[in-house]
Amino acid sequence: MRTDFLWGGATAANQVEGGFDADGKGLSCADLLSNGTREVPRQITPHQSEEGLYYPNRIASDFYHHYEEDIRLMGEMGFKCYRMSIAWTRIFPTGEEETPNEAGLAFYDRVFDLLHEQGIEPMVTISHYEMPIHLVNKYNGWASRETIDHFLRYCRVLFERYHTKVRYWLTFNEINCGTLALGNYMSLGIVHEGTRYFTKQIDDPQLRYQALHHQMVASALAVQVGHAIDADLQIGCMIAMMPTYPLTCHPKDLLKCQKQWQEINYYCTDVMVRGSYGAYTKRMWADMGITLSISDQDRQTLKDGTVDYIAISYYQTNCVSHEDDHSMIGGNLLAGVANPYLKASEWGWQIDPDGLRYTLKELYDRYQRPLMIVENGLGAFDQLESDGCVHDPYRIDYLRQHIRCMKEAIADGVDVMGYTPWSAIDIISASTGEMAKRYGFIYVDSDDHGNGSFRRIRKDSFYWYANVIASNGEEL
């Protein structure tokens, strides 16, 4: 392992911070997602609640009031890197202000200063599933080109304020989520008339892919702005890797698998790393009845604003088949055909460490850019035992297997910058709003409805991972 390998952990502001109305923060789209089905209110209005619904992102893990303790615990584990995000609405409460909210900026100054005090390098995602609800209401999120200008104002403020404190940046979290219907509200801020559920979106592919194009133009412009402010900044893209295998050696399974890789895993990275849409997109758009508005200036912007590195989330793999009579299994954003050779987590996500090695090799061979694993982990029902401890050998085993396969990929010649598992601390699940679906090295004493002391408790995996980092991955 390289001596400067970025070991650490990851969270997202909307899933960890809480303090949804503290110090001038505005309302984000995540603040209006209930737990369970993640219902979206029929009428999206500021600080709206509906009887019988609980909005877990508004409290989350209360990092906003516990950040000092939490960062010191990360320091105790020996983190070299903390992949986090900034809440857009802490800086621009509606997204349209000309002047940023100083209280929000000062909060992140304190966070970054304490991270550096602990020897931890921040890696900041600029937008992680929490765009201002005002922009959703007024512009239908990224469906409008006007959102690009508001995002760039936000980016410029961040780069100018923090470029001496933050070297590593990511523009959008899991931007390829926009290739899927569930990305409408969560990722793109699109609400169709009649929308009620986060997971049961009305979908208009023409609108969705145009909005995704706007996001990628905004990302390319942000890269250019950041590099102009400080040429030493490393600005990357972040995608949800959803690898698939052909279920059988039937050629039609292989062709379907190849098509899915292109349309989900490569669609955004081709643009953000290579600077243009892949050749396969012409037929893809035609088959979907899509005609995107892409100007000559857009094409030049995409070419001029390519990223410095690629960050990924990796949790599981699925299979694909050209036949429809197969049992399906869930996963991070994308369901698929069950792989008979793999076991699954309690949430039905198939566990495939070897798939991480395969995925890293595929990405590096295609793009020749440094890779960063910024999400990888196991959601599980952790139990606080009578001895006051949390014993999670299943998580240790999951991470151990994936780290071994990551090391094999590095030995294969892949340039991997670092590894920040999901998550540093227990947080609210993005897909279900649960606290019970725990990922962290640190247990947070809170339930699915925000009840509890919010006391922080080190799990067994906390001590195990501290030793992994101290040995630079040699002792697993």
From TrEMBL:
Pfam families documented for this protein: Glyco_hydro_1
PROSITE patterns on file: GLYCOSYL_HYDROL_F1_2
Protein name: Family 1 glycosylhydrolase
Signal sequence segment: none
Lineage, uppermost ranks: Bacteria, Bacillati, Bacillota, Erysipelotrichia, Erysipelotrichales
Source species, domain of life: Bacteria
InterPro entries, per database record: GH (IPR017853), GH_1_N_CS (IPR033132), Glyco_hydro_1 (IPR001360)
Biological source species: Amedibacillus dolichus
Gene3D superfamilies given in the database record: Glycosidases
Sequence similarity: Belongs to the glycosyl hydrolase 1 family.
